[in-house]
Each structure stands twice: as C-alpha cells, then as structure tokens.
C-alpha cells in the first residue's frame, strides 16, 4: 500500500510526518483562497485566523508539493492519523491528478489525496467565505493563537512558494497588504524577497475538471499546525 498527499499550504515547508518521496508540481482546476478559519493554532474561536483552502476554478493551476508514504500499513496509518488531526478544519478529502513541471497532458500521479473544505457556512463551521482584501489583511495581521501568529503563516507561505520557484500572485498581494496593516500598527515586517527576484512558472491551460468526493467528516479542532 502507498498513498500520496498534496500540500498547498504549510505542508509545503513543514510536512511534519515521515515520508519516503517528495515532488514539486501542480494540480489543475483549483486555486488557493483564504476562506478557512483556524481556531486552534494561529487563531482562537473568538478571533479566528485565516488559512488557505482550495476552490474549484476552471483553468486554474495550484503549485505545491506531493509526498509519498510507503513501507507498511502501520507507517501509513500513523501518517494519515497525523494529517487528519492536523488538517481537522478541512472536512473533505479529495482525490486529484498531480503533474510535474513540463507535463501538461498526462498526469504524473492519479488518486493523490488533498485536504479541502466545503465552501458552505451551513455545513462547514470553519468556512469563513470570501472578504475584501483589506479586511482579510487586517484579520491576518492581528490574529494569533496558542502556536503562533496568523501573519507568520502568510509570510512563510509566500517564502515557500518563492523557494519552489512558483510564486502565487494572490499570496503575494495578500502578504503585501498585511505588511501595510502592520506598518500602520507600527509593527513593520521586512520582506525578504523583492519583486525583481520573482520566479514564475509556465502559463498552463488545463482542460478537464475534477470532481471532489467527500469521504469523511473530520474531528473537532485541536492545537496542531494548519
């Protein structure tokens, strides 16, 4: 038995579990949105943080890292248990196709697991929904929880995408707005990578959509990284 899991948020720079292989690449027809609440790590129930989830969008691509776990049932069970606890605010496991850079037609891997969330406030209590950029930035700049600040999450994600050579314009825009808020608050944060150093990937035009499959309801939030 082998399973692969795709990381598009903190799993890119901090997987936190034992894995046997890792590849950088992308999935089609999904993009990041900062519509999910984190109440256990970088936020609280009273002042939730905003973390990213995936939203279906025809033609979009989302770069990240895919991890392979193999080597026996117990090893896989422990890795999945860790992921389910850590990603407890995500109420879906979706299976997707994964593509390495330069491959646009045939996927490198199929049946890759990715943690996603239902975009509905009635059925998903962690779903915040979209908000104006300035409002999201203020929330991210000020939210904090038992394990850290929300602003660290956006800055670390920005750096992680830079490090793999595929920056996300939405992440950059939101991180820049957070810096403006922090500047007004007198808590300016130095940006490590200037726009002149940005690395961009090829413009890919995906075709076929993928349908998510809700597999399980995940447990209540606990203090793990998201």
Automatic annotation (TrEMBL):
Q: Which cofactor does it need?
A: Mn(2+)
Q: Which Gene3D superfamilies match?
A: Gamma-glutamyl cyclotransferase-like
Q: Which CDD domains match?
A: GGCT_like
Chief subcellular location equals cytoplasm
The UniProt keyword set, sorted, is: Cytoplasm, Lyase
A GO BP entry: glutathione catabolic process
Q: Where in the cell is it found?
A: Cytoplasm
Q: Which GO terms describe its cellular component?
A: cytoplasm
Enumerate the InterPro entries for this protein. ChaC, GGCT-like, GGCT-like_sf
Enzymatic class:
lyase
Output one GO MF annotation.
Answer: glutathione specific gamma-glutamylcyclotransferase activity
Q: What are its E.C. numbers?
A: 4.3.2.7
Q: Does the keyword Lyase apply?
A: yes
What family does the entry list? Belongs to the gamma-glutamylcyclotransferase family.
Name recorded for this polypeptide: glutathione-specific gamma-glutamylcyclotransferase
Q: Which organism is it from?
A: Deinandra increscens subsp. villosa
């Amino acid at each position: 038995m082998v399973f692969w899991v795709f990381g598009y948020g903190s799993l890119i720079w901090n997987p936190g579990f034992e894995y046997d292989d890792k590849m950088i690449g992308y999935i089609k027809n999904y993009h990041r949105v900062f519509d999910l609440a984190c109440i256990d790590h970088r936020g609280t129930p009273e002042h939730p943080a905003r973390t990213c989830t995936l939203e279906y969008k025809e033609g979009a691509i989302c770069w990240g890292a895919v991890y392979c776990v193999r080597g026996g049932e117990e090893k896989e069970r422990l890795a999945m248990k860790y992921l389910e606890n850590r990603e407890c605010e995500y109420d879906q496991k979706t299976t997707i196709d994964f593509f390495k850079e330069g491959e646009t037609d045939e996927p490198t891997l199929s049946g890759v697991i990715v943690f996603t969330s239902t975009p509905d406030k009635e059925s998903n209590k962690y779903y915040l929904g979209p908000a104006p950029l300035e409002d999201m930035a203020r929330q991210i700049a000020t939210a904090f929880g038992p394990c850290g600040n929300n602003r660290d999450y956006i800055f670390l994600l920005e750096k992680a995408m830079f490090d793999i050579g595929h920056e996300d314009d939405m992440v950059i825009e939101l991180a820049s707005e957070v810096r403006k808020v922090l500047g007004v608050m007198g808590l300016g944060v130095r940006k490590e990578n200037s726009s002149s150093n940005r690395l961009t990937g090829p413009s890919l035009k995906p075709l076929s959509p993928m349908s998510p499959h809700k597999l399980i309801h995940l447990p209540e939030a606990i203090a793990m990284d998201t």
